[in-house]
Write a structure and sequence with these properties.
two-stranded antiparallel ribbon; 15 helices; Rossmann fold; about 525 residues; about 10% strand; 2 domains
Length: about 525
């Protein structure tokens, strides 16, 4: 069987899944293109801070992680494990937050369909058996949506089945590539230096070299193949399965926003890797010689499990936002997103409620290398029925350590209107469950960078409103607007100012200076 090497190069080094790499730990705190966190703490040496609650709406958090001990929010109005709703907020024993993906028996949802699959399923019974000439004038728009969803799902299923077949060949690739290289170089035990000296002239040779380097570095191995194969199988079995009941273990009606008392208090859930990673970026214990230094030394993480393996439900997100606001969070981190949102007004109402209470919403721009001014990523600060953006909503793109050409991460979404600013989101080392650590890529990592910066500023400058802090973060961003950068997902270049509102990367030290000035003015 002939191996499609170009496919594998794209698959391994492209955007099918976040890569885990081996490079400098915690660069985002110290690198010149990072946040300058350590420099900021030198400036804060003699200042006092106040605790700030940051709600993490995500997949769950390992509250017992060694680098998060003492950093998890505790609901002081709730008596643990007495099976009573002591604070009368509608949630029993919500000591650290709430799990909207479970039931009172302790069962929990893990996998979920993509939103377009759920929307298709809702329309299927109505339109599946109808011909176009049977569609009434009033149903044309809905029927058009039904057809689009059906075609998109069929396209995605075909694409993932193609991945599935190709992945079957990957173990063979790990065996095949070293043999080819050994033959070309004339030595079986070649080194990294041997590969560097090799200058293949044709495209296939260049692809073989790239794959050989990945194998030698450990970036392409059987463990990685297993992980990616599992992701593809999960997509076909759950995310794109139009017959999968993804609300089986919750038991509510996800279209009924008045039905609010569901879930349980198990905030870790089935797989808390993503949420734990996010929490560590914001609040991991500083200077304990373990893991990493979180950005905000006095942040408390409120855990709201509402993001399954698949697309989140609009209802869960709206209720999680309201819970965070009502229980004292000043910042809400939202490292999730999707291309469709059937209950936009209900989510908007929750976002607007947060803004009205001076709560900052920080949202990941998404990892599809797309312009979200054109292709939506929900939730958004600017729904079609709005006249202007929500005032306390930040959308964050992912940046790298490379200021020349590759400052925006190749996977990051962008948008001159919708994306406010960029922050480190490539090769980010942070906490994962069982007191372990790993590097992830994603705007999911960039958003908590900004949530952490906002928490630190609020902690040391408590008299400032979150709107003032938000504005200072944007005004102080280090500007790269005139630099020519490669547009994510393309080979074309544009000015960095065309990829976001600010054309900049978050700079904690400069934001702190602006906060210092504002506090001084108020005295």
């Amino acid at each position: 069987m002939k191996l499609n090497l170009s496919f594998f190069v794209l698959l391994i080094f492209g955007n099918v899944c976040a890569q885990v790499v081996v490079e400098q730990k915690n660069w985002h705190n110290t690198d010149p293109i990072g946040l300058h966190t350590e420099q900021a703490y030198k400036f804060l040496a003699n200042k006092q801070s106040s605790p700030v609650v940051v709600a993490v709406i995500d997949s769950g958090v390992d509250c017992d992680h060694e680098d998060l001990l003492g950093k998890i929010w505790i609901n002081s109005n709730e008596i643990p494990d007495n099976k009573m709703d002591d604070d009368k907020n509608g949630y029993i024993d919500d000591v650290h937050g709430w799990n909207f993906l479970g039931n009172e028996k302790g069962e929990m949802q893990d996998y979920a369909c993509y939103e377009k699959v759920r929307m298709y399923r809702m329309l299927r019974d109505k339109y599946e058996r109808l011909k176009e000439d049977q569609i009434t004038q009033g149903d044309i728009q809905e029927y058009t949506l039904f057809k689009r969803l059906k075609n998109e799902i069929a396209r995605d299923v075909a694409e993932y089945k193609g991945y599935q077949k190709q992945y079957e060949q990957l173990p063979m690739l790990i065996k095949y590539i070293p043999q080819v290289v050994a033959q070309v170089l004339g030595k079986p035990d070649y080194t990294k230096e041997d590969l560097t000296k090799w200058k293949p002239v044709d495209e296939e040779g260049k692809e073989v070299k790239m794959l050989a380097e990945a194998i030698l570095k450990g970036e392409l191995n059987l463990e990685m193949i297993e992980e990616q194969t599992e992701q593809v199988n999960t997509a076909l079995t759950y995310h794109l399965n139009v017959n999968y009941n993804d609300r089986e273990f919750v038991g509510d009606t996800p279209t009924d926003f008045t039905q609010v008392n569901y879930g349980n208090n198990n905030v870790e859930g089935k797989d808390a890797s993503h949420g734990t990673h996010v929490a560590g970026i914001i609040a991991a214990i500083r200077n304990n010689n373990v893991g990493l230094n979180g950005i905000a030394d006095n942040a408390q993480i409120m855990v709201l499990r509402a993001v399954p393996n698949g697309d989140e439900q609009d209802k869960d997100i709206a209720l999680a936002i309201r819970y965070a606001v009502d229980n004292g969070a000043k910042i809400i981190n939202m490292s999730f997103g999707k291309g469709y949102s059937p209950f936009q007004k209900e989510v908007y109402d929750a976002l607007a409620y947060a803004s009205s209470k001076d709560v900052l919403l920080v949202h990941a721009a998404g990892n599809d290398s797309k312009n979200i001014d054109v292709e939506p990523n929900f939730p958004t600060p600017l729904y079609t029925f709005q006249k202007e953006k929500l005032p306390l909503f930040l959308t964050i793109g992912a940046s790298t350590k490379k200021s020349k050409k590759h400052l925006p991460a190749d996977f990051s979404n962008y948008g001159k209107v919708q994306v406010d600013v960029f922050a480190p989101g490539k090769d980010i080392y942070s906490t994962i469950p069982q007191s372990a650590y790993k590097k992830y890529d994603g705007t999911s990592m960039a958003a908590p960078m900004v949530a952490g910066v906002a928490a630190l500023l609020k902690s040391y400058y408590p008299s400032l409103t979150m709107l003032q802090i938000k504005n200072n973060i944007l005004l102080s961003a280090k500007k790269y607007g005139k630099s020519k950068q490669i547009i994510p997902g393309t080979k074309k270049k544009t000015r960095f100012s065309d990829l976001s509102v600010t054309g900049g990367v978050v700079d904690l030290v400069e934001a702190m200076k602006l906060c210092e000035v504002e506090v001084g003015k108020s005295k």
